[in-house]
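Researcher: Please translate sequence to structure tokens.
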Amino acid sequence: MSERERMYQLLDTVPDNKIAYIIGYIQGLTTESQEQPNAETLAAFAEVDEMKRTGSGQRFHNLNDLWDSLEE
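Model: Translation complete:
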């Protein structure tokens, strides 16, 4: 039995009240994202990768410390 045949077999067992979830999931799998990160976002990704590599950058152990740093 192929994977597709197995999927059809399983689909026949899904209750009608849950079919909408299956449809949404399959639509999500078949939709290609058209959005591409802009140059600023790509630069931010690169900055984070560099911070991970070097161990630099600020670290926060809780949200209060993070919020406090933003107020400075």
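Researcher: Any highlights?
Model: The chain has four helices and no strands.
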